[in-house]
Amino acid sequence: MRQRFNIRWIILTICFLLCTGCLAKDGYIVTRWAETLGDELWELAEKVARPEELLSKYKAMNTRVENKSGEELVNIISENVGRMLRRKMDAVTCIRMAAEEHAENWENDEEEGNFTYVSGKYSPVNKELPKIPSNMEKNIDAYRKMLLTPDSHFYNIPVNTSFSSVHIPTNVYDMSPAVIEDIKKTEILDNIFQQNYESDPALSWQYFGSVTGMLRQYPAMQWKMDPTQDGQGGEEEDEEKPDIYDCRVRSWFIEAATCSKDMVILMDTSGSMTGMGKTIARTTVNAILDTLSNNDFVTVLSYTNVTYDVVPCFKDMLIQATPENVYTFKNAIANVKTEGLANLTEAFTRAFNLLSTYRETRGCGADTSCNQLIMLVTDGVPGNLTEVFRTWNWRDNDTHIPVRVFTYLLGKEVTKVREIQWMACLNRGYYTHVHTLEEVREQVLKYIPVVARPMVLQDVVHPVVWTHAYADITNPALATWLWLVMQHKEQQSRLQKLLKGKRLGVRINEDDTYIQKLHKSEDVRQDASLLNTTAWQEYRLLTSVSTPVFDRKGNRNNRTRIANLLGVAGTDVPIDDIRKLTLPYKLGVNGYAFIVSNNGYVILHPDLRPVYKGTLKRNYNSIDLTEVEILDDGRGPRNPGPEVLELRAALVDHKKGSLKGVPVKLHYDDNRRVSLERRDYFYAPLPGTPFGLAVAIPNYGTTWIKVGDEIRRNQNLKVNISDFFMGNNWRVHPGWVYCRFHYLEGHEFNSPEQELRHFLDLLNKPGWRWSEQYENETDHVPNCGRRTLSQDDYYCNKELMQLLVFDAKATNASFNSDFVLDDPRARQLAEDYGIFLRFVATQSGLTRWHHLDTNNLPEDDDGIVFGDLHRRAVNEPWYKGAIFQNILDPNSISLSVPWEAGVNATVTASIGIFPKDDRKTAPAAVIGFQMPMKDLYKKFINLTSGQTNSTLINCRNLWIDCYLLDQNGFIVISEAHNDTGQFMGTQEGAVMNSMVGQGLYDPVDIYDYQAWCEEVFSSSIAEREFVKSSVFREACECKVKFRKEAQETSKTNNRKVLGNCTIPFALWRHISNSCQVPPKKKFSRRAKDSRNLLWNVSQTK
Fold first, then answer.
1. Phi, psi of 568 (to 5 degrees)
2. Is residue 625 part of a domain?
3. pTM of the complete model
4. CATH number of the domain where residue 143 is located
5. Residue 79 contacts residue 188 (beta carbons within 8 Å)
6. Domains held by the chain: number
7. What CATH number is attached to the domain comprising 332?
């Protein structure tokens, strides 16, 4: 029996503003339009999408619906991710052990003059000679040849996995004795690099950096610093870019060598520093700031006859050394003035007093010391400062010195050198003389091994440290290559699919995958996909794990302990590798896992948005949990509620537990829509790391489809499961792992579908066994001789494979042959609406589609089809919208149109499929169809402008505008095609306000704490200016600049408000000028959730 579509679910109300008022007769006419449109769309859904057919199939297959256990999910994910992270920690531990052992026993028995090594910069590559500076040509025979081939595991960068290559900073001479010694005694690490990689082929770059600046990186690659070619990156210069890379200033090196620290930098700005002295001082302070990370806290004090904070709003505070705060310090230092005499006593007193306050707050003492430093940058000292140090820093009969003092004496002509040396030596520091600007970096870096000495002296614990998330494009070692490999066919294929999807109006957020570089004459306010000279670069977020390597040789036979740091060993871990282990298919729509660091910053989160309009944000890796989990608790901006603070504290403190029924504001569809819902949070620590893991499950996502051994069941029935995957009209989620070879090289597939077919064939062959990527190991002691994997070893997600086969079997009958509409009326309706495609997308990541024989939409002959554009269907707005709509009313459909799509837009109608099992339902799939906007518009105009309609209420009248709105106030249909996908409030603000006043929509305010303003270069006026962003207009109008301020510890959330400088917040930010709120976005939300669309008729002014 045909179920009539209940029209009230698709038409919310009729609203029209006419000079004569709202007439009952006209209201009846508009209601009739709505009923006709609704009935026809629902009839099409029944005849074309055929949801009942799919539901019947799921029922016939005895679909089981089970409740999700949040505790079980977080435990499974924690175990999966924990295994993977332990393997990475084992890898760096093995590198460290090998480096220490070989260095302890190493003797230089090689004859002088026979020294050669593989240089990333100067070795010949594939018989091509690199550019070698003229002053180094005499050493050309010292650089061994390299044979490199592109490797897909390393982003298609040419590498050689048989050995490592060496990089030496530009300001370090590679033939100096200390560097040669480091190169020689670390060459043995090639063996452990290979062992690590062959036992875990998912390992990314491995490396060892020495205190001399020597970097040994595996696999070997050529060091590229060439400019991006014109037409790709918009650069026109042909000069070689300078090589600025130095492993000693990378976060993985600094954090492992020095641990977290509090630092006060004293910068002399007295009159004697005028000229070159001030330039060297600024450069020195900047170089010191470059050695800090998110785990460090710092402030910069400038002193003459008085001492003042270079950033007034950071007065009397240590500030967390996030990239945005470091940038703020550097800007302030650039504007300091030199004048007067230097009062160093007052400067030291301010610095010691500030550090003492922080020690007391944290409970530091002789037994639990804090790592605190004062860095003095000056061209001279007035004399003896014994009383200052005796008062503030020499405790317990001079046996306890809580603060180390490092002194940097600037200039060639200096006096009282002995006094400034004395300051450093008697305060457990180090003295450095910086003669010229060129020496600055090398001299600054000398403090690092000194700070590491206490850790080296204990010679037992080697801390394993993890960095915060960072983008691979910020690594100078990879940055140029990541531009160059965009010409590879794999990267080009992905890019072309994205660009075509944008042209067709597919909802794609390219900022999740790409940064963009425009030609200098172009404007970032334009759509980059329409500009021919835009260069696109894929980026990935990484975290690095590293551990210090100690020099044990000096202490082998000596009574006097020598504390030398050899270097740091590390490896990179792509965040995507972690994401793949979080069971997204099981978490469901708007269910997700996220990871938080010891500072409360998100490492992994679906709302972490590092890039805006193709540009990497400055604060992208210091986004606090309270900035992405937005509660629906009525609080104002930067005033997080107790629930999210409790969750944050539990994650930071490595606790295990849950938090249920938390009201939240969920924004989706690229921040265009908002939903109010309740979530349950389940959290657990990730052992051995500073990270906490949590799982969020919405109140409507508590069930899922549970599948047994579907593969074995079909095999027992003599059914070939490969038959469920015939043809080319299906795709699987490219970001999920079904089955995969450990070694990608040698197992190249043209597509994930070809890879899946290969494993489906293997399933039916003798000897098949299910294996995991990382087997469970009860013994967590590093195994440096772990079994290496063979070329044909593979791993699978057994549960996901079973679910995929189950979905493929359920959907196969409906999509394995040509689709024909036999019903004459349905066929006519499909022609009228221009329906050209039907599809299904399942929770297992399977997407199928059919082209209807009634309509053929012209497409480019580029091989890019529906499945290529919607591979990640479960993340699409039309998928989420169908799930939402089914929960509100199972007998309704969801219509979705792209933002700013225009006349050539494609409209997607989708329906959620919820199989039932013992009164429980769960989302199994979304089924639907697509039609051109122009055909739906044509039907709309014919319906609203027919001869039988009222002369007054007729959408052909020039003084009437007709709209069809969705549940969030976005325009589905309008007479002006360029309004499609736009928010009604921006097109007809008065009408939208009227509907809000009548209760048809509820306004929801939500603050975007990751927003920022664009800085645009305008060639017409040849200057840079801040412009108003259409998305974040309010932020730009008040010129908000966010800067993170320090917490006293990662667990402290209460700090006083200092005038107009700060706003009370869990993790404080400073807002310049008088603007006291972050960017706010207004969303409209329908008043009654069971209704889907709104018809609006208004008078044109």
1. -140, 135
2. yes
3. 0.87
4. 3.30.450.20
5. no
6. 6
7. 3.40.50.410
Shared-domain flag, residues 450 and 544: no
The C-alpha atoms of residue 47 and residue 831 are separated, in whole angstroms, by 13
Rounded-to-integer distance, Cα 38 and Cα 10, Å: 6
Looking at the fold, whether 210 and 61 belong to one and the same domain comes out as no
Residue 548, preceding peptide bond in cis (omega within 30° of 0):
no
Predicted confidence at residue 521, as pLDDT, reads 58
Provide the token pair at 43: 């009839």
Stretch 557-570: mean pLDDT: 78
DSSP category for residue 128 = B
* Consecutive H or E run containing 1006: strand 1001-1007
- 283 and 426 housed in the same domain: yes
Same domain, 586 and 566: no
Is residue 993 pLDDT above 80, yes or no? yes
Give the Cα separation of 481 and 165 in Å (integer): 16
Based on the fold, state whether residues 279 and 364 are members of the same structural domain: yes
pLDDT the model gives residue 1072? 25
Q: Quick one: CA dihedral 1035, 1038, 1043, 1047, positive or negative?
A: negative
In contact, 161 and 167? CB cutoff 8 Å: no
* DSSP state, residue 631: B
Per-residue DSSP letter, 211: T
Q: Give residue 842's identity as a one-letter amino acid code.
A: T
Final residue of a structural domain among 701, 718, 750: 701
Task: Determine the 3-state secondary structure of 565 from DSSP.
Answer: strand
- H/E segment holding residue 568: strand 565-574
Rounded to whole angstroms, how far apart are CA atoms 776 and 342?
Answer: 63
Q: Are residues 622 and 659 in the same domain?
A: yes
Residues 565 and 611 grouped into a single domain: no
Angle at 135 between CA 131 and CA 139, to 5 degrees: 75
Give domain status of residue 961, yes or no: yes
What integer is the mean pLDDT of 846-854? 85
Provide the CATH number for the domain around residue 631: 3.30.450
958 exposure class (CB count in 10 Å sphere: 0-12, 13-18, 19+): exposed
Give the pLDDT of residue 1019: 42
Judge contact between 203 and 574, C-beta under 8 A: no
Four-point Cα dihedral 401, 402, 406, 407, nearest 10: -70
- Residue 647 sits at the vertex; the CA angle it makes with 87 and 631, to the nearest 5 degrees, is 125
In a domain, 174, yes or no: yes
Question: How far, in Å, CA of 133 to CA of 144, rounded?
Answer: 17
Q: Which structure tokens are listed for 177? A: 């004795």
SS3 per-residue string spanning 214-233: CEEEECEECCCCCCCCCCCC
Q: CA-to-CA distance for 124 and 131, rounded, in angstroms?
A: 9
Q: What is the mean pLDDT of the chain?
A: 82
Per-residue pLDDT of 938-960, as tens digits, reads: 888 888 876 655 556 777 777 77
Residue 79 domain-assigned (yes or no):
no
CA distance 837 to 855: 8
Q: According to DSSP H, which parts of 998-1075 are helical?
A: 1033-1037
Domain range spanning residue 762? Answer: 707-773+792-810
- Residue closest to 837 by CA, chosen among 823, 822, 821, 857: 857
Amino acid at 881: G
296 and 418 both lie in a single domain: yes
Residue 238, pLDDT above cutoff 70: no
